[in-house]
Amino acid sequence: MLLKRMFKGGAAVPHLKRTENCETIKMTVPEKVIIPMLQHIGTPCEPYVKKGDEVKVGQVIGNTDKFVSAPVHSSVSGIVTDVSPKLYAGGVYITSVEIKTDGMQELDKNIKPPKYSGSDEFIGAIRKSGLVGLGGAGFPAHIKLSPPQGKKIDTLIINAAECEPYITSDYREIIENSWNVMDGINIVMEALKIKNVIIGIEDNKPEAIKEMEHVASKSDKINVVELKSRYPQGAEKMLIYATTGRKVPPGKLPSDVGVIVMNVNSVSFISEYIKTGMPLIKKRVTIDGSAVNNPSNLEVLIGTSLIDVFEFSGGFKTSPLKVLMGGPMMGIAQFSLQTSVLKHTNALLAFAEKDATLPNAGSCIRCGRCVKACPMNLLPLYLNNNSLKENIEELRKYHVNDCIECGSCSYVCPAKIHLVQSIRLGKAQVRQAAAKGGK
Fold first, then answer.
1. Which of 72, 189, 305, 358 is the most exposed, having the fewest neighbouring CB atoms within 10 Å of its CB?
2. Is the peptide bond before 232 cis (omega within 30 degrees of 0)?
3. Residue 59 resides in a domain
4. How many domains does the chain have?
């Protein structure tokens, strides 16, 4: 086992992993799905189908020639009933394909295991699979696997930290499909000629550590690192430092320090895709929260509505005041239960009023806890103040874009100031100023 290090800052958040022993249940096919053409960081896809078209499982229904993108596939067989802009989980209008399912789940005739020779063809196959980062970020995987010219990658880090409360999707992948995880790791290692692999798992998951040490025991190139449980241990820069000691400079990428970081579910998917050719059409989702009747882990078809997912898992024991897509630290509050499960949806959390009501923000007492908690060495209070004042020059001076929006500052603030919301607003102000040619 390699020496583990501890990053600066962060927060000791509660684990609340109530579904860690809940085996994944496959959800039934819903009556309809609504599949947005944007399920990744980057350019939205253009729809390839129109109303009235018949579609099959795994069929490409959206794509674009833009590099920062990933194709979108149908998760069901049925008839397209609508193609139009709809409000989606991110809160903006995105062209979406609505499909009435026929219950047959007939496969598209083009689905077959990919053939590739060399890294370029492998990366091309990954793009065709529609894979994005399954840990929640949604970054197109083929880009992550394509470091810039001249950047030599010597280490692949597998992110199995899963440091946010409640979420157990990654943990269940290890417990249920550890050999798939190992197979995916070996596929990526061989295709990209990477010599070393580190699997990072927080120490609150001893069974996952034990299982990965078992399946990796025959390889001297793969090491399992037991990480200290501290949020945001699973953030890329924190994970890279904890496992390798390398520091990614501000504005730089993991490839700048010779590293690629992949989520444990992502490498497991690669194993399945190489064997079957089935693109990304489903996702394991943790269902939890104080308003939920039966916390569970479900295998859900992409495009399934949130209300269908919650009803399948047993419904609500009380009307939820807030529903999050993702974890309680970085998840996005949903405006409607008619929004759809996306490729990178790893959790759906529904909270009763007593747990979802935000406290009123008080006045800053200059305690410095936000500064101490920031894992990026930023000054959250200054960013907050300058965001409220719309001071673009100062936001840039204090490196607002380096914030990873982990929420550690807000979590530890005794005055309950909504720091992350202000910082997000500040980022938007900087982007708008740049678009207008402002300084």
1. 358
2. yes
3. no
4. 2
Beta carbons within 8 Å of 73's beta carbon, 6+ residues apart? 58, 59, 60, 61, 130, 279, 280, 281
* Residue 318 shares a structural domain with residue 347: yes
In a domain, 49, yes or no: no
14 burial (CB, 10 Å; 0-12 / 13-18 / 19+) is: exposed
Q: How far apart are CA 32 and CA 343, in angstroms?
A: 17
- HSE (side-chain half, CA atoms, 13 Å) at 430: 20
Phi and psi for 393 in degrees, rounded to 5? -60, -45
At residue 438, the pLDDT reads 55
Half-sphere exposure of 219 (CA within 13 A, CB side): 19
Q: Is residue 302 part of a domain?
A: yes
3-state helix, strand, coil in the chain (%, to 5): 30, 20, 50
- In a domain? residue 107: no
Q: How many residues can be counted in the chain?
A: 439
Which residues of the chain register pLDDT less than 50?
1
Taking residue 67's Cβ as centre, other Cβ atoms within 10 Å add up to 12
Angle at which helices 169-192 and 119-129 cross, to 10°: 150
Nearest CA to 417 out of 358, 376, 372 is that of: 358
